[in-house]
Amino acid sequence: MQRAFFNLLFVSLVVSLQACVAVNSAVVADTPGLKTLAAFPIGVAVNVASAGAGIQVSKERADLIGRHFNSLVAENSMKMSYLHPAENNFTFAGADALASYAHQHGMVLHGHALVWHSDYQIPVWMKNYQGDWEKMLASHVSQICAHFAGTVRSWDVVNEAIDDLHPAGYRASIFYEKIGKSYIEKAFIAAHAADANAELYYNDYNIEGSQGKLDFMLRMIDDFKSRQIPLHGIGFQMHVSSDGPGIAQIRKSFKAVADRGLKVRISELDVAMNQQRQFSTFTPAVAAQQKARYKAIITAYLEAVPPAQRGGITFWGLLDGDSWIGKRYQRPDWPLLFADDYSAKPALSGVAEALTGK
Ligand code: 9MR
Protein backbone atom coordinates (compact mmCIF):
# COMPACT_ATOMS: atom_id res chain seq x y z
CA MET A 1 0.00 0.00 0.00
CA GLN A 2 2.71 2.36 1.11
CA ARG A 3 4.83 1.25 -1.84
CA ALA A 4 1.96 1.88 -4.25
CA PHE A 5 1.59 5.40 -2.85
CA PHE A 6 5.26 6.16 -3.37
CA ASN A 7 5.11 4.74 -6.88
CA LEU A 8 2.20 7.01 -7.65
CA LEU A 9 4.02 9.97 -6.14
CA PHE A 10 7.10 9.18 -8.21
CA VAL A 11 5.11 8.86 -11.42
CA SER A 12 3.27 12.14 -10.86
CA LEU A 13 6.54 13.89 -10.07
CA VAL A 14 8.06 12.64 -13.31
CA VAL A 15 4.96 13.66 -15.26
CA SER A 16 4.94 17.17 -13.81
CA LEU A 17 8.66 17.55 -14.38
CA GLN A 18 8.22 16.52 -18.01
CA ALA A 19 5.36 18.97 -18.37
CA CYS A 20 7.55 21.70 -16.92
CA VAL A 21 10.38 20.94 -19.33
CA ALA A 22 7.88 20.85 -22.20
CA VAL A 23 6.48 24.29 -21.27
CA ASN A 24 9.93 25.83 -20.97
CA SER A 25 11.20 24.41 -24.21
CA ALA A 26 7.99 25.49 -25.93
CA VAL A 27 8.65 29.05 -24.72
CA VAL A 28 12.24 28.91 -25.91
CA ALA A 29 11.27 27.36 -29.22
CA ASP A 30 8.53 29.96 -29.71
CA THR A 31 10.92 32.86 -29.35
CA PRO A 32 12.85 33.06 -32.60
CA GLY A 33 16.42 34.25 -32.55
CA LEU A 34 16.16 37.90 -33.60
CA LYS A 35 19.16 37.52 -35.89
CA THR A 36 17.25 34.97 -37.95
CA LEU A 37 14.55 37.54 -38.70
CA ALA A 38 16.62 40.30 -40.30
CA ALA A 39 18.89 40.66 -43.29
CA PHE A 40 20.99 43.24 -41.41
CA PRO A 41 23.09 42.96 -38.23
CA ILE A 42 21.23 42.66 -34.93
CA GLY A 43 23.62 43.67 -32.19
CA VAL A 44 24.07 44.09 -28.48
CA ALA A 45 26.49 46.11 -26.35
CA VAL A 46 28.58 43.94 -24.06
CA ASN A 47 31.16 44.29 -21.39
CA VAL A 48 34.43 42.59 -21.95
CA ALA A 49 35.48 40.64 -18.91
CA SER A 50 33.91 42.19 -15.84
CA ALA A 51 33.13 39.46 -13.32
CA GLY A 52 29.94 37.65 -14.24
CA ALA A 53 28.81 40.23 -16.74
CA GLY A 54 31.55 39.66 -19.30
CA ILE A 55 30.32 37.80 -22.31
CA GLN A 56 33.35 35.50 -22.26
CA VAL A 57 32.84 34.45 -18.64
CA SER A 58 29.08 33.97 -18.37
CA LYS A 59 27.51 30.99 -20.08
CA GLU A 60 23.98 32.35 -19.66
CA ARG A 61 24.89 35.59 -21.39
CA ALA A 62 26.87 33.87 -24.09
CA ASP A 63 23.96 31.50 -24.85
CA LEU A 64 21.36 34.25 -25.01
CA ILE A 65 23.59 36.48 -27.11
CA GLY A 66 24.49 33.63 -29.45
CA ARG A 67 20.82 32.89 -29.99
CA HIS A 68 19.66 36.41 -30.80
CA PHE A 69 22.55 38.55 -31.99
CA ASN A 70 25.12 38.51 -34.78
CA SER A 71 26.82 41.81 -34.01
CA LEU A 72 28.64 43.03 -30.90
CA VAL A 73 29.84 46.39 -29.67
CA ALA A 74 31.93 47.02 -26.57
CA GLU A 75 29.80 49.12 -24.23
CA ASN A 76 32.94 50.72 -22.85
CA SER A 77 36.22 48.97 -23.51
CA MET A 78 36.92 50.42 -26.95
CA LYS A 79 36.56 54.02 -25.81
CA MET A 80 39.53 56.35 -26.05
CA SER A 81 40.91 56.13 -22.52
CA TYR A 82 40.75 52.34 -22.45
CA LEU A 83 42.39 51.72 -25.81
CA HIS A 84 44.92 54.54 -25.65
CA PRO A 85 45.94 55.18 -22.03
CA ALA A 86 49.30 56.80 -22.83
CA GLU A 87 50.54 58.60 -25.90
CA ASN A 88 52.74 55.73 -26.99
CA ASN A 89 50.81 52.90 -25.43
CA PHE A 90 47.71 51.12 -26.64
CA THR A 91 45.93 48.42 -24.65
CA PHE A 92 44.30 46.27 -27.25
CA ALA A 93 44.12 42.98 -25.32
CA GLY A 94 40.51 43.22 -24.11
CA ALA A 95 39.18 44.45 -27.43
CA ASP A 96 41.23 41.84 -29.31
CA ALA A 97 39.67 39.14 -27.13
CA LEU A 98 36.23 40.49 -27.95
CA ALA A 99 37.11 40.62 -31.65
CA SER A 100 38.23 37.01 -31.65
CA TYR A 101 35.15 35.99 -29.64
CA ALA A 102 32.98 37.68 -32.26
CA HIS A 103 34.88 36.04 -35.08
CA GLN A 104 34.70 32.55 -33.52
CA HIS A 105 30.96 32.93 -33.05
CA GLY A 106 30.23 34.27 -36.51
CA MET A 107 29.43 37.78 -35.30
CA VAL A 108 30.63 41.17 -36.53
CA LEU A 109 32.22 43.71 -34.21
CA HIS A 110 31.28 47.37 -34.45
CA GLY A 111 33.84 49.81 -33.00
CA HIS A 112 32.69 52.47 -30.50
CA ALA A 113 34.09 55.21 -30.44
CA LEU A 114 37.27 56.71 -31.87
CA VAL A 115 36.63 60.34 -30.88
CA TRP A 116 34.27 61.20 -28.02
CA HIS A 117 34.11 64.35 -25.93
CA SER A 118 33.01 62.68 -22.69
CA ASP A 119 35.41 64.02 -20.12
CA TYR A 120 36.51 60.91 -18.31
CA GLN A 121 36.76 58.91 -21.53
CA ILE A 122 39.44 61.22 -22.87
CA PRO A 123 42.82 59.95 -21.71
CA VAL A 124 44.54 62.27 -19.26
CA TRP A 125 47.68 62.50 -21.43
CA MET A 126 45.50 63.70 -24.29
CA LYS A 127 43.78 66.36 -22.20
CA ASN A 128 47.19 67.69 -21.27
CA TYR A 129 48.65 67.42 -24.75
CA GLN A 130 50.79 70.41 -25.70
CA GLY A 131 51.80 69.51 -29.26
CA ASP A 132 49.99 69.57 -32.61
CA TRP A 133 46.44 68.44 -31.81
CA GLU A 134 45.48 67.82 -35.39
CA LYS A 135 48.36 65.42 -35.93
CA MET A 136 47.89 63.77 -32.55
CA LEU A 137 44.19 63.07 -33.07
CA ALA A 138 44.75 61.79 -36.61
CA SER A 139 47.42 59.46 -35.30
CA HIS A 140 45.11 58.23 -32.50
CA VAL A 141 42.42 57.41 -35.04
CA SER A 142 44.68 55.86 -37.63
CA GLN A 143 46.65 53.65 -35.23
CA ILE A 144 43.46 52.20 -33.78
CA CYS A 145 41.82 51.71 -37.15
CA ALA A 146 44.93 50.11 -38.57
CA HIS A 147 45.13 47.72 -35.63
CA PHE A 148 41.54 46.54 -36.13
CA ALA A 149 41.52 46.60 -39.93
CA GLY A 150 39.81 43.42 -41.05
CA THR A 151 38.30 42.67 -37.64
CA VAL A 152 36.19 45.76 -36.99
CA ARG A 153 34.06 46.35 -40.04
CA SER A 154 32.36 49.54 -38.95
CA TRP A 155 33.25 52.39 -36.60
CA ASP A 156 31.64 55.22 -34.73
CA VAL A 157 34.36 57.60 -35.82
CA VAL A 158 33.03 60.68 -34.04
CA ASN A 159 30.46 60.48 -31.27
CA GLU A 160 28.22 63.34 -30.10
CA ALA A 161 29.89 66.33 -31.74
CA ILE A 162 26.70 68.37 -31.93
CA ASP A 163 25.46 70.34 -28.94
CA ASP A 164 21.78 70.03 -28.28
CA LEU A 165 21.68 72.36 -25.32
CA HIS A 166 22.87 75.39 -27.25
CA PRO A 167 20.64 74.69 -30.15
CA ALA A 168 22.31 72.90 -32.87
CA GLY A 169 25.86 74.07 -32.93
CA TYR A 170 29.06 72.15 -32.51
CA ARG A 171 29.69 70.97 -29.01
CA ALA A 172 32.47 72.92 -27.31
CA SER A 173 34.52 69.75 -26.74
CA ILE A 174 38.23 69.81 -26.17
CA PHE A 175 38.67 68.71 -29.80
CA TYR A 176 36.56 71.59 -31.06
CA GLU A 177 38.44 74.04 -28.91
CA LYS A 178 41.87 72.79 -29.93
CA ILE A 179 41.24 72.11 -33.63
CA GLY A 180 37.94 73.70 -34.65
CA LYS A 181 35.09 71.94 -36.42
CA SER A 182 37.48 70.34 -38.92
CA TYR A 183 38.46 67.75 -36.30
CA ILE A 184 35.35 65.84 -37.34
CA GLU A 185 36.18 65.49 -41.03
CA LYS A 186 39.86 64.90 -40.24
CA ALA A 187 38.93 61.95 -38.05
CA PHE A 188 36.94 60.45 -40.94
CA ILE A 189 39.78 61.04 -43.37
CA ALA A 190 42.31 59.41 -41.01
CA ALA A 191 40.04 56.41 -40.38
CA HIS A 192 39.48 55.87 -44.09
CA ALA A 193 43.19 56.15 -44.86
CA ALA A 194 43.96 53.51 -42.21
CA ASP A 195 41.24 51.07 -43.25
CA ALA A 196 39.58 51.76 -46.57
CA ASN A 197 37.16 48.86 -46.08
CA ALA A 198 35.63 50.01 -42.80
CA GLU A 199 32.20 51.62 -42.78
CA LEU A 200 32.45 54.97 -41.05
CA TYR A 201 29.63 56.40 -38.96
CA TYR A 202 28.86 59.66 -37.23
CA ASN A 203 26.94 58.73 -34.04
CA ASP A 204 24.73 60.94 -31.86
CA TYR A 205 21.70 61.04 -29.56
CA ASN A 206 18.50 63.01 -29.89
CA ILE A 207 18.86 63.42 -33.65
CA GLU A 208 15.64 61.39 -33.90
CA GLY A 209 13.86 63.85 -31.60
CA SER A 210 15.26 67.34 -32.02
CA GLN A 211 14.56 68.86 -35.42
CA GLY A 212 17.17 71.57 -34.80
CA LYS A 213 19.88 69.05 -34.03
CA LEU A 214 18.87 66.90 -36.99
CA ASP A 215 18.94 69.88 -39.37
CA PHE A 216 22.38 70.88 -38.16
CA MET A 217 23.61 67.33 -38.71
CA LEU A 218 22.05 67.19 -42.18
CA ARG A 219 23.92 70.35 -43.13
CA MET A 220 27.12 68.72 -41.91
CA ILE A 221 26.36 65.61 -43.98
CA ASP A 222 25.62 67.67 -47.11
CA ASP A 223 28.85 69.59 -46.65
CA PHE A 224 30.82 66.35 -46.20
CA LYS A 225 29.20 64.83 -49.27
CA SER A 226 29.99 67.87 -51.38
CA ARG A 227 33.66 67.58 -50.38
CA GLN A 228 33.89 63.75 -50.57
CA ILE A 229 34.64 63.30 -46.89
CA PRO A 230 34.42 59.53 -46.30
CA LEU A 231 31.27 59.35 -44.18
CA HIS A 232 29.17 56.26 -44.85
CA GLY A 233 26.43 56.32 -42.28
CA ILE A 234 24.71 57.82 -39.29
CA GLY A 235 24.22 56.07 -35.97
CA PHE A 236 21.04 57.10 -34.20
CA GLN A 237 21.74 56.18 -30.59
CA MET A 238 18.02 56.10 -29.75
CA HIS A 239 18.09 56.30 -25.98
CA VAL A 240 14.37 56.91 -26.07
CA SER A 241 11.54 56.53 -23.62
CA SER A 242 7.98 55.38 -23.56
CA ASP A 243 6.72 58.95 -24.09
CA GLY A 244 8.94 60.26 -26.78
CA PRO A 245 10.06 61.29 -29.26
CA GLY A 246 6.97 60.73 -31.40
CA ILE A 247 7.16 58.00 -33.97
CA ALA A 248 6.47 60.34 -36.91
CA GLN A 249 9.51 62.44 -35.99
CA ILE A 250 11.63 59.30 -35.62
CA ARG A 251 10.57 57.99 -39.03
CA LYS A 252 11.14 61.37 -40.67
CA SER A 253 14.63 61.64 -39.17
CA PHE A 254 15.69 58.19 -40.40
CA LYS A 255 14.30 59.05 -43.83
CA ALA A 256 16.13 62.36 -44.04
CA VAL A 257 19.43 60.51 -43.62
CA ALA A 258 18.45 57.62 -45.90
CA ASP A 259 17.42 60.13 -48.61
CA ARG A 260 21.01 61.36 -48.62
CA GLY A 261 22.19 57.88 -49.58
CA LEU A 262 23.82 57.12 -46.24
CA LYS A 263 23.46 54.00 -44.15
CA VAL A 264 21.39 54.24 -40.99
CA ARG A 265 22.13 52.30 -37.82
CA ILE A 266 20.10 52.30 -34.66
CA SER A 267 23.20 52.16 -32.56
CA GLU A 268 22.32 52.16 -28.83
CA LEU A 269 18.64 51.35 -28.53
CA ASP A 270 16.91 51.25 -25.17
CA VAL A 271 13.41 52.29 -24.11
CA ALA A 272 13.24 53.80 -20.63
CA MET A 273 9.87 53.24 -18.94
CA ASN A 274 10.20 55.06 -15.65
CA GLN A 275 11.38 58.62 -16.37
CA GLN A 276 8.73 60.07 -14.08
CA ARG A 277 9.67 57.53 -11.39
CA GLN A 278 6.03 56.54 -11.20
CA PHE A 279 6.66 52.78 -11.06
CA SER A 280 8.35 50.66 -8.45
CA THR A 281 7.84 47.39 -10.31
CA PHE A 282 7.64 46.36 -13.92
CA THR A 283 3.97 45.51 -14.34
CA PRO A 284 2.38 43.64 -17.27
CA ALA A 285 0.79 46.92 -18.39
CA VAL A 286 4.17 48.66 -18.54
CA ALA A 287 5.62 45.65 -20.34
CA ALA A 288 2.84 45.82 -22.94
CA GLN A 289 3.44 49.53 -23.47
CA GLN A 290 7.15 48.88 -23.92
CA LYS A 291 6.49 46.08 -26.39
CA ALA A 292 4.35 48.40 -28.52
CA ARG A 293 7.02 51.12 -28.40
CA TYR A 294 9.82 48.77 -29.48
CA LYS A 295 7.62 47.45 -32.25
CA ALA A 296 6.79 50.94 -33.52
CA ILE A 297 10.46 52.01 -33.55
CA ILE A 298 11.67 48.98 -35.48
CA THR A 299 8.74 49.32 -37.88
CA ALA A 300 9.62 52.98 -38.49
CA TYR A 301 13.21 51.95 -39.25
CA LEU A 302 12.06 49.36 -41.79
CA GLU A 303 9.65 51.83 -43.39
CA ALA A 304 12.11 54.68 -43.66
CA VAL A 305 15.38 52.95 -44.54
CA PRO A 306 15.69 50.93 -47.77
CA PRO A 307 17.18 47.43 -47.27
CA ALA A 308 20.58 48.24 -48.78
CA GLN A 309 21.02 51.16 -46.37
CA ARG A 310 20.19 49.31 -43.16
CA GLY A 311 23.38 49.24 -41.14
CA GLY A 312 21.66 47.32 -38.35
CA ILE A 313 20.13 47.68 -34.93
CA THR A 314 22.09 47.42 -31.69
CA PHE A 315 20.54 47.23 -28.23
CA TRP A 316 22.49 48.99 -25.48
CA GLY A 317 22.87 46.03 -23.15
CA LEU A 318 21.32 42.62 -22.65
CA LEU A 319 19.57 42.47 -19.26
CA ASP A 320 17.62 45.31 -17.66
CA GLY A 321 20.07 45.33 -14.77
CA ASP A 322 22.98 45.98 -17.15
CA SER A 323 21.54 49.24 -18.35
CA TRP A 324 23.30 52.55 -17.75
CA ILE A 325 19.90 54.21 -17.20
CA GLY A 326 19.15 52.93 -13.69
CA LYS A 327 22.71 53.72 -12.63
CA ARG A 328 22.89 57.17 -14.17
CA TYR A 329 19.47 58.35 -12.99
CA GLN A 330 19.35 56.37 -9.75
CA ARG A 331 15.92 54.92 -10.32
CA PRO A 332 14.45 51.52 -11.11
CA ASP A 333 13.96 51.07 -14.84
CA TRP A 334 13.57 48.21 -17.31
CA PRO A 335 14.77 49.48 -20.68
CA LEU A 336 16.03 46.33 -22.45
CA LEU A 337 14.73 43.10 -24.01
CA PHE A 338 15.59 40.64 -21.23
CA ALA A 339 14.93 40.55 -17.50
CA ASP A 340 17.70 39.91 -15.03
CA ASP A 341 16.80 36.21 -14.84
CA TYR A 342 17.55 36.00 -18.60
CA SER A 343 13.88 35.59 -19.48
CA ALA A 344 12.57 37.32 -22.59
CA LYS A 345 10.31 40.30 -21.98
CA PRO A 346 7.32 41.15 -24.18
CA ALA A 347 9.62 43.77 -25.77
CA LEU A 348 11.46 40.92 -27.49
CA SER A 349 8.25 39.78 -29.17
CA GLY A 350 7.58 43.39 -30.16
CA VAL A 351 10.92 43.52 -31.98
CA ALA A 352 10.35 40.09 -33.53
CA GLU A 353 6.86 41.06 -34.71
CA ALA A 354 8.19 44.23 -36.32
CA LEU A 355 10.99 42.36 -38.07
CA THR A 356 8.58 39.80 -39.45
CA GLY A 357 5.94 42.38 -40.33
CA LYS A 358 3.27 40.77 -38.10
O1 9MR B 1 26.60 52.58 -21.16
C1 9MR B 1 27.81 53.30 -20.98
C2 9MR B 1 28.16 53.38 -19.51
O2 9MR B 1 28.43 52.09 -18.98
C3 9MR B 1 29.37 54.30 -19.31
O3 9MR B 1 29.58 54.51 -17.94
C4 9MR B 1 29.14 55.63 -20.02
C5 9MR B 1 30.37 56.51 -19.97
O4 9MR B 1 31.43 55.92 -20.68
O5 9MR B 1 28.82 55.43 -21.38
C6 9MR B 1 27.65 54.67 -21.58
O6 9MR B 1 27.40 54.54 -22.96
C7 9MR B 1 27.16 55.74 -23.66
C8 9MR B 1 27.75 55.60 -25.04
O7 9MR B 1 29.11 55.27 -24.95
C9 9MR B 1 27.56 56.85 -25.86
N1 9MR B 1 26.18 57.23 -25.91
C10 9MR B 1 25.49 57.32 -24.62
C11 9MR B 1 25.67 56.02 -23.85
C12 9MR B 1 24.88 56.05 -22.55
O8 9MR B 1 25.36 57.05 -21.70
In short:
This protein is an alpha/beta fold and 358 residues long.
Which bin fits the share of residues in helices?
40-55%
Widest β-sheet, arrangement of strands: 1-2-3-4-7-8-10-11
Catalogue the unreliable spans: 1-29
List the total number of helices: 13
Task: Tell me how many strands there are.
Answer: 11
Give an overview in words:
The protein is α/β, with parallel strands linked by helices and 358 residues long. It has a single domain, classed as Glycosidases (TIM Barrel, Alpha-Beta Barrel). The protein contains 13 helices and 11 strands. Strand 5 and strand 6 (169-170) form a beta hairpin. The longest helix is centred in the first third of the chain and has 29 residues, at 2-30. Mean pLDDT is 90; it is low at 1-29. Ligand 9MR binds next to loops.
Notable traits:
globular; TIM Barrel; alpha/beta; 358 residues; 11 strands; binds ligand 9MR; 13 helices; two-stranded antiparallel ribbon; 8-stranded parallel barrel; 45% helix
SSE blueprint and pairings:
Elements: H1 2-30, E1 42-46, H2 59-68, E2 71-74, H3 80-83, H4 93-104, E3 108-116, H5 124-127, H6 133-148, E4 152-159, E5 162-163, E6 169-170, H7 174-179, H8 182-194, E7 199-204, H9 211-226, E8 233-236, E9 239-241, H10 247-258, E10 263-272, H11 284-304, E11 310-315, H12 324-329, H13 346-356
Parallel strand pairs: 1-2, 1-11, 2-3, 3-4, 4-7, 7-8, 8-10, 9-10, 10-11
Antiparallel strand pairs: 5-6
Bound molecules: ligand 9MR.
